[in-house]
Amino acid sequence: MTDLLLRDVRLIDGTGAAPRAHVDVLVAGGVVTEVAPTGTLAAASDPDPARLRVVEGAGRTLLPGFLDCHVHVSTLPGGDTLDTVLAPESLLTLRSVPHLSATLDAGITTARDLAGADSGFRDAVEQRLVRGPRLQVAIRILSITGGHGDWRTIEGVALDTGPGAGAVADSPAEFVRAVREVLRQGADWVKVAATGGMGSPRSHPESGGLSEPELRAVVAEADRHGGVGVAA
């Protein structure tokens, strides 16, 4: 791996310390190893292009990558519902690849996908098959009947059967089973619809979601599996 020298930047390091102007930052093996006033690093005195890539910051600001706690990388903005239902899963997946790259270009290096992306998205980024931020996935949203996440017609026909389809449950025992199922599928987080939400067929933001006993059952079961977090 070629080392990287970011020369003459204004560094905000994320620790709460004041910004540092006119510094050089050396990245070796993918890790920041040195920070020093511009022009004082030994590695910068006679850089070998074969071993060291130099990027001139010209006083621009350098800061750590951002973490976005709520994304849906497989959802197309303004997408047509019928098209989403009828399109093959492979096409929907490939459509999301530019979103992953654009997210990384925006400075987000870690993202938490709270329904839509399955574990394959995360693994593809880790294996460098696609370019994108590190992903943590919830896969599905756990919902009560008629809640934010129940994407069925009045007759009960599922509008979405893909990875992002909601998992409907209606008792503490059913929600425990739903938690186990998304964890079996490789989820890093458990996402629940604690209230109603925007865009739901049968609910709105002021609608109710899981009852307190149901929510407690979800949290307890997720915690029992190594302290998995719950997003609500």
TrEMBL record:
Residue ranges of domain Amidohydrolase-related in the record: 61-231
Hydrolase as UniProt keyword: yes
Keyword Cell division included in the entry's annotation: no
Keywords, ordered alphabetically: Hydrolase
Sample GO molecular function, one term: hydrolase activity, acting on carbon-nitrogen (but not peptide) bonds
Listed InterPro entries: Amidohydro-rel, Metal-dep_hydrolase_composite, Metal_Hydrolase, Metallo-dep_Hydrolase
Pfam families, A to Z: Amidohydro_1
Annotated protein name in UniProt: Amidohydrolase family protein
